[in-house]
Amino acid sequence: MGQEPRLSPQMTEDVELGELNNSLGFLVRVAQVRVYDQFYERFGADDLRPGEFSMLWVMHLNPGIKQGILAQTLRIKPAHMTKTVRRFEDQGLIEREIPDHDRRSVLLKLTEKGEAFVAANKRNFFGENAYNTHGLSAEEAETLAHLLKRYVGLETGERI
């Protein structure tokens, strides 16, 4: 069986959570905080924020993806997407292209530096020593991933 989340003694001894113990919103939020804490432990010095590797990974898999489609797929607000794209471009990780046939679209692709960054960090995100250690068995992690994909509408073959 997996390990229980590590809570402070005060939280486990003095605080009654009541119905929050079964609230999906609350549990997902606490899980997100745990994953972010682990993320910053591993990548805090790399000037990378949670979710940004996901953007780079999807660009790696979909060279020339439209910025709007990427934002919609990853549920990123347009203003935040624009800011992050500019930062990635300033860092030399991506290139933007505005096609002649559709001047309103922005196409994104990784540069050689961006591809090298993704390759160098793939194992940190997806490998056996990935940053998001969870204390679950492989079967438990697979079940949780399956349920979360159902919850957010990412069942096999579906898109958000």
UniProtKB/TrEMBL annotation:
SUPFAM superfamilies: Winged helix' DNA-binding domain. One of its GO terms (biological process) is response to stress. One of its GO terms (molecular function) is DNA-binding transcription factor activity. InterPro entries: HTH_MarR-typ (IPR000835), MarR/SlyA-like (IPR039422), WH-like_DNA-bd_sf (IPR036388), WH_DNA-bd_sf (IPR036390). Residues 17-153 form the HTH marR-type domain. It comes from the Bacteria. PANTHER family: HTH-TYPE TRANSCRIPTIONAL REPRESSOR YETL (PTHR33164:SF43), TRANSCRIPTIONAL REGULATOR, MARR FAMILY (PTHR33164). This is MarR family transcriptional regulator. It comes from Martelella lutilitoris. The lineage of its organism: Bacteria, Pseudomonadati, Pseudomonadota, Alphaproteobacteria, Hyphomicrobiales.
